[in-house]
């Protein structure tokens, strides 16, 4: 490799490292901010002696912790970081992740890295075509993963405005570029209020 090429590659690596570090810091700040908000809400209910609301809010926090814990157990660092930092990456879409208890990609007979790459690529493709929501509104994306007897089922359910033609076109290109040959299953729906589709990954394939 020529000196100029090596210097360029070194600069690119440093730039990527800086971007990753900045994303990490922003993600930590978001998590800290969320926990501070939770503490303030709990303190407010306690101070006002609204114990019924206090109990309900504690349950909400427990559910959030369970969801975040499930994400952290997926087993693929790149996917875990991507999902946990999504709030920093996108302000126009809220991501809800639903996982079966004890679901872990790396414990299944699939190429976990390839599956993770496909999930991230599909979400990034969707983000390029979502419409900016009106004030007070929020676009929502539900990502669900589960293991069946012979396959992993990955569901994407988006609610909000988007560019229908552009999304269909680019999703097709994204899936064709999948080195693992992943494909969107038949029965995908695209309508004015959103889009929903599944990817099936055979176990042992």
From TrEMBL:
A GO molecular-function descriptor: phosphorelay sensor kinase activity
Q: Which residues form the SpoOB alpha-helical domain?
A: 25-74
Q: Which domain of life is it from?
A: Bacteria
Q: Which UniProt keywords apply?
A: Kinase, Phosphoprotein, Transferase
Q: Which Pfam families match?
A: SPOB_a
Descriptive protein name: SpoOB alpha-helical domain-containing protein
């Amino acid at each position: 490799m020529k000196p100029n090429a090596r210097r360029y590659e070194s600069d690119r690596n440093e730039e990527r490292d800086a971007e990753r570090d900045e994303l990490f810091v922003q993600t930590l700040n978001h998590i800290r901010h969320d926990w501070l908000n939770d503490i303030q809400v709990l303190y407010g209910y306690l101070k006002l002696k609204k114990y019924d609301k206090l109990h309900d809010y504690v349950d909400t926090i427990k559910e959030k912790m369970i969801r975040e814990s499930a994400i952290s157990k997926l087993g693929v660092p790149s996917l875990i970081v991507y999902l946990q930092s999504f709030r920093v990456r996108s302000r126009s879409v809220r991501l809800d992740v639903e996982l079966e208890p004890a679901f872990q990609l790396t414990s299944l007979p699939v190429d976990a890295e390839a599956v993770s790459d496909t999930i991230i690529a599909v979400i990034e493709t969707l983000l390029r075509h979502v419409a900016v929501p009106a004030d007070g509104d929020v676009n929502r994306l539900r990502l669900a993963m589960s293991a069946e007897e012979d396959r992993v089922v990955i569901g994407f359910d988006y609610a909000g405005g988007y560019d229908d033609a552009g999304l269909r076109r680019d999703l097709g290109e994204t899936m064709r570029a999948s080195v693992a040959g992943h494909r969107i299953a038949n029965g995908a729906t695209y309508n004015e209020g959103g889009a929903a589709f599944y990817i099936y990954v055979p176990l042992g394939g």
